[in-house]
Design goal:
three-stranded antiparallel beta sheet
Length: about 150
Amino acid sequence: MVAALLFVFVVGSAFILSSIGIVPIVDANGLSWDNSAYVADQQGETTRYVAKLAADTAQSADNNATWRTIAIAAAVFGVLALAIAQWGITMRERHQAQLKLQMYLAYLGVSGHVGQLDGQLGVFDHDHGEFIPAGVALLEMRSNGNLR
């Protein structure tokens, strides 16, 4: 019985070991194991793994460069879009202020024009020969209820 179990254990072990590349060899020295196929398989697997790591590293570097380029392009586009939007808002506000000052000229019923003096927007009143800053003109129109 023990001999049968020992035989099954040895044959089973030999089968399992031979399935991974380690083969039993019985020669004049007795039982030994040839694991050269297993070692060659492991070396091949290591070589494939190192090659895959190198390829993955190269692919990762390419992906990083691509995403970096996309991020820079998106940032430039975003800044450009923001600048254009801000320019449009500034132009609209400037245009609205000029329209309000033209309304002020019509409200006063005097001849004049809207312009800037020393960088300050206002109304040039030709009849009275004076410059009325935009803030003063708009405040006067608001106080009289002609502008909200």
